[in-house]
Design goal:
466 residues, globular, 41% helix, single chain
Length: 466
């Protein structure tokens, strides 16, 4: 679903944000904002898909602000202006993406507080907030702590992708420490209600349970060595599902990983990823063609492959695959619009080609190839077309994968810090076809941080000027 962000440079209610507003934008200024928002959105889609999905679902308006007289950028969210954030325009699209994440978390928490109080009535007590010099009341500290959980998560993902370099390491370490300290202050303040205590406890656990692996950035040569040690070979055709953050910091992030995979596969090999086209709202015309629109939520590696100029994408309206390499045309051509993941999809072509599957930092629940087995089990309709695609069910995949792995047919190893599995697609599909637990049902889809099968995703918003 395309989302049109309105640039609210005029009209009522903008004063709610408490900062100096811009004058109505000129045509050139509106174009500058639009370009900046598109660039920031690309950062979110590629490296922060979970935040991209929530912003796409709820953000409707951006209010342009003036920076401070000394040039300091400012931003704001107002509880009575749900769906809107206000900001001055930074030069760096990464910082604008961070601003959208930070401020929209304020919006989300405001909506939650309208439904469920998390703290008691205001008191005279004030508490230290690590990110500002003035002590804050409990409610304001809660807002800041939740928003800075998003800041911490943003820099964690930037660091894990290798895109942020040393800046990302410094920012992540700083905001992780600040957010943890603020959460501890809230838990000790005595002003939280029972629901608030549970909320902040889980917030603090979220800060602590997702550290970025320490160590130097991995380069292309390091990844090539790991991939070859795992057993990937020149000339292979391989379907990759990944959570790149599990690899650890990689120099230049996903671009380096795609290059390393291409180096190992060589000119006769083919790299394939699952890149489902975003689901369009009923009755609407897609804002862009289904074969070029980013597949928000599929993982940064898959989106990076999709964006390569030489990549080819299959023509299914929502369950598309993208391939890069010698057999890319053969893999992606002839994808029947009535067959999402069956015989007439790229999965069928991959089986014919003797392709392999690489699960990088993800489990068997993300193994798209097992869907091919679903089309072959006796309980399904004989027709592998649209009326049966809706009944795809990935819930048994973890158990099926564990049983398959127990046969000894799966090679295991590490690429960076990521636990990886490499196996033959046809052999795995044959095994899954014989398993009675492979049944038809409603597809559950993968974790939003992973590249897998079974999920439909939103289009990035079409950022438009008023």
């Amino acid at each position: 679903m395309a989302l049109a962000l309105r640039l609210a440079d005029r009209g009522p209610f903008r004063e709610a944000h408490g900062h100096e507003l811009t004058e109505p934008l000129t045509a050139g200024q509106a174009q500058e904002w639009t370009r900046a928002l598109r660039a920031a959105w690309a950062v979110l889609v590629r490296r922060h898909p979970w935040h991209a999905q929530t912003i796409a679902a709820g953000l409707t308006t951006v209010v342009p602000l003036r920076p401070e007289p000394d040039g300091t950028e400012v931003s704001s969210a107002a509880r009575r202006a749900f769906g809107a954030v206000a900001a001055s325009l930074p030069e760096d699209p990464v910082l604008l993406a961070l601003t959208l994440v930070h401020e929209f978390l304020h919006v989300q928490l405001g909506a939650l507080l309208d439904l469920l109080p998390l703290h008691g009535p205001p008191t005279e007590a004030r508490y230290h907030a690590p990110w500002r010099p003035d002590p804050r009341p409990a409610g304001a500290l809660l807002q800041g702590t939740y928003a800075h959980l998003g800041v911490t998560d943003f820099w964690r993902a930037e660091l894990a992708s290798g895109a942020g370099g040393e800046r990302a390491r410094r920012e992540y370490d700083t905001w992780r420490e600040h957010t943890d300290a603020a959460a501890r202050t809230l838990l000790d303040c005595g002003e939280l209600l029972p629901a608030g205590e549970r909320f902040v406890t889980e917030l603090r656990e979220a800060v602590r349970r997702r550290p970025v692996p320490a160590g130097a950035l991995r380069g292309r040569a390091d990844l090539v060595q790991d991939l070859r040690a795992l057993g990937l070979r020149a000339g292979d055709t391989v379907l990759v599902h990944s959570a790149l953050s599990t690899v650890g910091p990689v120099s230049s992030g996903a671009e380096t990983m795609v290059s390393a995979l291409s180096d190992v596969l060589g000119p006769s090999g083919t790299l394939v990823v699952y890149t489902p086209a975003p689901e369009e709202a009923p009755g609407r015309t897609p804002a862009s063609g289904p074969y070029t629109a980013p597949g928000s939520g599929v993982g940064v590696l898959a989106e990076t492959v999709r964006a390569r100029p030489a990549a080819l994408r299959s023509a299914h309206p929502w369950s598309a695959f993208t391939a890069l390499g010698a057999r890319a045309d053969h893999v992606t051509s002839g994808h029947s619009p009535d067959c999402a993941l069956g015989e007439e999809s790229p999965l069928g072509r991959l089986e014919e080609l003797g392709a392999r599957v690489l699960l990088m930092g993800v489990g068997f629940e993300a193994c798209t190839a097992f869907h091919l087995a679903e089309y072959r089990v006796p309980s399904r309709s004989a027709s592998p077309h649209a009326d049966t695609d809706a009944r795809l069910d990935s819930s048994p995949f973890a158990a099926v994968g564990a049983a398959y792995e127990a046969t000894g047919a799966v090679r295991s190893g590490r690429v960076g810090h990521a636990h990886c599995r490499l196996f033959d697609l046809a052999d795995a599909v044959a095994f899954a076809t014989e398993r009675p637990t492979t049944t038809a049902g409603k597809d559950q889809g993968p974790d939003p941080d992973e590249s897998g099968a079974g999920a439909r995703h939103r289009n990035p918003p079409a950022v438009t000027a008023p």
